[in-house]
Amino acid sequence: MTLATLSLTQLRQKLLAREISPADIVRDLAARRDAVDPAIGAYLRFDADRALADALHADISLPLGGIPVALKDNINTTGDLCTCASRFLANFRSPYDATVTRKLRAAGAILLGRCNMDEFAMGSSTENSALQPTRNPWDTQRVPGGSSGGSAAAVAADTAIVSLGSDTGGSIRQPAAFCGVVGLKPTYGRVSRYGLVAFASSLDQIGPFAGSVEDAALLLHAIAGPDPMENTSRPIPVPDYTAALTGHVEGLRVGIPKEYFVEGLDPEVASAVRAAIDWFANHGARVTEVSLPHTPAATAVYYIIATAEASANLARFDGVRYGHRAPDAKDPLDLYRRSRAQGFGPEVKRRIILGTYVLSSGYYDAYYNRAQKVRQLIRRDFTTAFESCDIILAPTTPTPAFRAGEKTADPLQMYLADIFTIAANLAGVPALSLPCGFSSCGLPIGLQIIGPHFAEETLFRAAHAYEQAHPWKDRKPAL
Amino acid sequence: MSASTLDVAYVADLARIDLAPDEKALFQKQLADVLGYVNQLQKVDISSVPDTPIDPHLPTNVLRLDEIRPGLPTADALANAPAQANSLITAPKIVE
Amino acid sequence: MTYEAVIGLEVHVQLKTATKMFCGCRNQYGAPPNSHVCPVCLGYPGALPVPNEEAIRMTILTGLMLECDIAPVCKFDRKSYFYPDMPKNYQISQYDLPLCLGGRVLLDKFAFPKETQKDPIAEAKKPIRLVRIHLEEDVAKSFHYDQASGIDFNRAGTPLMEIVTEADLRSPEEAFAFLTTLKQILIYGDVSDADMEKGQLRCDVNISVRPVGQETFGTKCELKNLNSISGVRRALQYEIARQIDIVSSGGTIRQETRRWDDTAGQTFLMRTKEQAHDYRYFPDPDLLPIRTDQGLLDQARARLPELPAARKDRYVADFGLNDYQASVLAADRRLAAYFEQAAAATQAKVAVANFLANEFLATEPDLDQLTLPATHFSALADLVASGKINSKQAKDLLTEMLASGEAPGDLVKRLGLEQVSDTAQLDAWCDAAIAANPRSVADYKAGKTAAINALKGFVMKQSKGKANPAVVDQILQSKLR
Known about the structure:
The complex is a heterotrimer of chains A (479), B (96) and C (481).
Chain A: H1 8-16, H2 22-40, E1 43-46, H3 48-56, E2 68-72, H4 99-106, E3 110-115, H5 149-156, E4 162-167, H6 173-179, E5 182-185, E6 205-210, H7 213-223, E7 253-257, H8 267-282, E8 286-290, H9 298-313, H10 332-343, H11 346-359, H12 365-388, E9 391-395, H13 411-415, H14 422-427, E10 431-438, E11 444-450, H15 456-469
Parallel strand pairs in A: 2-3, 2-4, 7-8, 7-9
Antiparallel strand pairs in A: 1-3, 4-6, 5-6, 5-10, 9-11, 10-11
Chain B: H1 8-14, H2 21-38, H3 74-79, E1 84-85, E2 88-92
Antiparallel strand pairs in B: 1-2
Chain C: E1 3-14, H1 53-65, E2 69-70, E3 73-74, E4 77-80, E5 90-93, E6 100-101, E7 104-106, H2 120-123, E8 127-137, E9 141-144, E10 148-152, E11 159-165, H3 172-188, E12 201-211, E13 221-224, H4 229-248, E14 256-261, E15 266-272, E16 282-283, E17 290-291, H5 296-302, H6 308-319, H7 323-331, H8 333-344, H9 349-360, H10 374-385, H11 391-404, H12 408-415, H13 423-436, H14 438-445, H15 452-462, H16 469-480
Helix pairs in contact in C: 1-5, 3-4, 6-7, 7-9, 8-9, 8-10, 9-10, 10-11, 13-15, 13-16, 15-16
């Protein structure tokens, strides 16, 4: 039997019981990765030798001692490449650790490998990676979702126990739903962004992927908390999330937002989510309808604010201090124009151009300023809704995983794939996706649980109780 | 706001990205679609949102003491530079 | 037709914090290239800024010293433009909510160039209004070679204040006085060393001319590369003449940026105003707003020093100094502190001021070299006041004291300078003088009282300058009566 299919919790028990060693886990993962990843392409890099060397020194008395963790390739790690799946950073070797990297090391985790993603986290299918494609383990004709597609696919394919991704408009939850794993976007300010290559600073959050809710809770516990290096991280203590895993939902007030059950929602997704809601209703939760009236505007707001912030965040990629430099530039202007033209893929260029435009003189008020105001309304929607409920249940995505190439020609259709996940980023609230069934052709369906700011415990409690009753996670893709 | 006000060539210049002619034409169309979509925001009633330049939800005064922290050794700071000389990062000549 | 100049300044001031604005790298001038850098100030992917509270306090303090309104709440914005010396290709700055608004600087007479201090305008204490002061991060420093430019990021991210004036200045001399006064105040507040040659204070000038009486402004030019306060004055003198030359011969001024060449003594065209920059300002999402009314303002206020103008007034009122002495001593924070130490140890405060402001400063000293105890000046003043030495001797003693660092009392003994007030000795010298100068004695007795000076001179000569002139005068008068 391979250790690769076990959960973090199971592996920790075995490690503490001295039944296995950290190196055993790394070896099994490496073997599994060699066997199945060529068909998936979840990993950009996988350094088994180094992970084995680290495994020998792992301190299993630490919370994540001896547990390998895979990272999305936009999280800085000293001495490692950090490519963001971009040609621009193909050879960029980071001189520093992100705060989450530092915390993982401090928790005893073994840094395992680096996962593919949409270039600079811009995309919903991982097809925007400039380095390689990643496919969905459940159907390799389909996308794993994005932008953290590699991190989700690795956990789904059992080539990683747990992994980290980043979520700006759904980039953890949407691939988690597509790949049938648990993915959490924490509250904005819960996990330090220091060392996460910025896409949209007011929306980005790092979060865990895991095979189970408990594993996700353990991983979040290790990476969460205030950070003096990060101005927007919040000084709120990190609770023991596993203590919230009570296994019941009695008395939980569950809100169902009518705006999420609309035209365009795949009937199989709708019925899987409805069935999950019924389970909550039948197990002591009080289910009511709530309204998030500004939901239809969320995607529009997002594509203004996220691209505006990105246009400035990605201005630093200029070919001067690091990254791709176009040869033989005659002056700095020429250097910028050609280095960026050569280093960025089309989606990155499109978003930089859109973001530059909405901030430019004469358009700022009509676009950026107005979008910020509508964002306030979206935030207010959640505040109002959470007066009458503890969590909100909704589909994570309108459809299960779509086919590779299906939406690449039409950016707008690709953007609409994130229609249910974006609002949580705009409001800064935490949201989790977990499997709630399969479509008739065997694709996973995600249930999204959204909570108030810093209510991750409630999300874990609800998700864990549902998961205990619905062992979808025991179904594995045929690879 | 009309989507036609987006001149991709002009904005790409502001953003310092050279675009090939076919790329320019493609982006012009694709971004016009996106702008057409985001223009729905013009219809949202925002009159209830106060016109404050600072988001009232944000915490304030998260500051750093004026204390020195170790930075990068010069060699590490230069390690990623595409070109360097005499501990300086070099770039095509800046003409003022 | 007569023309007047209309001048506005944008002054950048480096704050003397220990660390940079948004990271913990050392803020230090003159270190080896790229030795004070980190992922934050190099603009590395994923690095994030955290504001230095001391820089914010220093900017508030500057605002208080310059009579600005301090914003209760402010924020940082991103200002986007591409330049190799700018690590992120946006500068963290403040756009619509700067820390300080308004404010003014009163031009002190003695801040004007020496030869213009008697002009009426120098007497007027003219107020120069400020538009605002905001806080931002500095850019890196570039060095230009034949083929390439080299960039040192040590300066990148150091805290920088931008002080913007209204177009209230009307002459190169006023600009000189403004910068001189501003520099004094910045040093008093201990917020900057404000040395233009080290780039700690940098100044861009907007200058236009118009016929006297015309309300609207003429087309302005921006001057760059101004590396000293006197250089600003020279550049303005040149540029005003150039512009007047053009308009008075029927030409028009183009809006352009011009570079001052101090060696050539001319401004040269750098660039004509191309299309306006589109800086795409927006609030920096990496940084939280700053409230000044929850401690920062009070902390800054507690540091508010007595400013040069107030100190000058106090010297005049409390110590009886004249305007010039008071201004000169108050102008420099270190000199003023030194003076006050010296003045505290003697009643002869005016004499101390005189030694420092008139005698000592005339030697154009380097204040760094002023290491002798301030009480030496007090002792020197006391020697004169008590009549132990005369003022001529005092000057010599001062020179000797500065050279050797010896205390005045010791010097008097070593050099045998003590005045002779012993009546028997003086009596003998006076008798000798009367005997040797019968003609002067006769003149005096005939009513030419000035003739006594010749007798006094004889005594001083005999005594090698040590006779107490006042006592000699008394003795001679009584002997000749």
